[in-house]
Amino acid sequence: MTPVNTKHYLHDDVIRKLTELKLAELSDYVDELCADPECVNLDFIGKFEVITNRLYQNRINELINNLLKNATLREPQAAIAGLYYESERMLSRELMIELGTCDFIRSQTNIIIEGPTGAGKTYIACALAKAAVGKCYRVKYIRLPDLQQELEDCYHYNRSLKNLKQKYIRPALLVIDEWMLRASSDSLSSFLLDVMEGRYTTSSTIFCTQSKQESWHAMLGGNTMAEAIIDRIVQNSLTITLGNLNMRSLRNPLMKYKNVKE
Fold it and tell me: CA 31 to CA 5: how far, in whole Å?
């Protein structure tokens, strides 16, 4: 469409009513449509469809922007198209394209991304999370150490534990980064059990971890509560195990310069 024309084709009273209905942008769309020579010969239905499609796309874009902001992704620029598939990385292009459709969310499948530090676990998780946002899913990213701090603050300041649980139960996709980086406290394990129970069979969670799954039981307390948490995670899950390729070094422009000099 052509740039916005300063002339208003609708009467001021109609514009006022659209504003009250929270549809003020429709006035601009009408102005653009009427000023566009390519749309002059459209009948009423054709013009109405153009304006409706424009309004719908604008609202969807606003929703996606808000969802992305609320997701608090650590790497909001991450994208499936930007993934690196060097053989040493042991990452399947076909699998990532499939996961990018977000069917795993519809089937309530959890994803466990294992790999050493620098392997790009967070980027992959954020790329999948951003794909989910693009399909209008509610997403939330959190580092487990930050979640533990939130829980401690909740107890310290006598805040609602129920609200904190709902914050992490509601999202269609939850990304927990730095999972089991260190042993969990009893209070955190109890909280995680409630969250995993609330999300079980209703939503999906991505876990980014350096720790092998065999070690989780001991790190979660080595008791029946640990077994219950793990059971709710792994029963319907997919594990992606990354190789030793250090993506931080690969993406570091100084390292590239060093390689050229050598």
Answer: 6
